[in-house]
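User: quick one, fold this
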Amino acid sequence: MKILLVEDEVKSGEYLRKGLREAGFVVDWARDGAEGLQLALQESYELVILDVMLPLLDGWQLLRELRKVRDTPVLFLTARDEVEDRVKGLELGADDYLVKPFSFMELIARVRTLLRRGPVRESSLIEIADMQIDVMKRRVTRNGERLDLTAKEFSLLHLLAQRRGEVLSRSLIASQVWDMNFDSDTNVVDVAIRRLRAKLDDPHPRKLIQTVRGIGYVLEEGE
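Assistant:
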């Protein structure tokens, strides 16, 4: 899942980006409000974590502009702790408001809650054929047996499952799962797919991950 962090304070930004990545999220970091708004409008994010006091464009202004065209969930993370500030943030369209200093565990819990009830309203349980993905618990089973996936393998499978039946290019997968621009010399996606297949498909006659030659990969129920 891809998150946009808009935070101008370098130390806080580095701390948040590192922690969110360790929690399994892909994170883009904007250092000012103008850059944050540009990214929020151009890219596709599941959540925006937004400071209020930002250079160029403050968090209030950014949210007003974003809400004109996007329903992306927004969590304010700010030192502005007055009741009036919290009310203002929520009335402008924020989905949650957390005051600094904060517990990182609480932040992650709030992030996951917002993602669970985000505008897409994704179910926390995805079922495809005999495979089940419990998104909140980050647990995958096939034919009732639990699969031991790494964080990246889970992110890769979750992306394919969210867009089941849609052929995803290697460049799209690389950007969504590894937060990297695709380099034609690297086979990181192919290697990851091969490892995922070894756990997900190889033990079973019914294969879920299909290769579309020259384009990419698709997850579908198949025969």
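User: anything notable?
Assistant: The CA atoms of residues 61 and 90 lie 13 Å apart.
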